[in-house]
Amino acid sequence: MENENTGVDISAINEKIQKESAFVDLLTNEMNKVIVGQKHMIDRLLIGLLGQGHILLEGVPGLAKTLAINTLSKAVQGSFSRIQFTPDLLPADVVGTMIYNIKENDFSIKKGPIFANFVLADEINRAPAKVQSALLEAMQEKQVTIGDETFILDKPFLVMATQNPVEQEGTYPLPEAQVDRFMLKTVIDYPKMDEEQLVVRANLSGSFANVNPVVSTTQILSAQAAVRDVYMDEKIEKYILNLVFATRYPEQYNLKDLKPLISFGASPRGSINLATAAKCYAFIKRRGYVVPEDVRAVVYDVLRHRVGITYEAEAENITSVDIINKIVNEIEVP
């Protein structure tokens, strides 16, 4: 099966992706041993990992956010570290610092918890701006400078930051420009009743399965490269751009009523991440090409934090998700 216009051999790509993505089921099954339900969160973690992006998770306490990334780091043979953000945290507590060694009369470097494959930044909105920007710089540049030495962070490198939507007291909300650094913002909800029943049972009986490493970091790096080969037709690219441009110029897309509700639209980073996330989603579904459903599956997580709403929208109780919903329903699917 060859695409006439581009001469791309889709069946060959498909075959390659099916081989490369064989570990996805292994990984998901391993995570499901410990995490009941929360399929959406697990999928999004894999998209972040494969797309070399980072994830901002929002949800009330106790929804297995910490457990999820810890389980992922065990199932992939990677190192895991957790940083609990507090108002008195310093940038050095995240990236590391220079320590004076009296014996040797010299400084040595003590690396911080950011040096791991999987980093959980718990309650990122509790730390002051300086600490947030130290973490975000490491996420963006994939490197850290301590003193006058620069260290490249290990690959794969996935940051999952959590924020608690419940309390605003003593928190420092992330600025819009910094939230944009996250590939996905995923909101997770309470589990269903039958799922929670299983969670309660497992906790009371202490019968948690052991998570075994089923994937190596080398396999993940090879999968990250393979994701780039997933075929995306020009029509799908156009569809992605239309969705993003509709957040900036809704009046051009027959959505005049959204104009007063949007304070700013998605950035070019939004388009890049939407395309990458759609490719990752196709990869997880073990397909070598992107279909419009892949884009629609990830559009809310990619754009939710990239569309600013005005006071007028807030007054009418309209959220960025409502706006994205209208756009998705209006833009023609290829």
Automatic annotation (TrEMBL):
Chain ranges of the ChlI/MoxR AAA lid domain: 260-327
Pfam family, one: AAA_3
Domain ATPase AAA-3: 54-184
Protein name per UniProt: ATPase AAA
Originating organism: Psychroflexus planctonicus
Lineage, uppermost ranks: Bacteria, Pseudomonadati, Bacteroidota, Flavobacteriia, Flavobacteriales
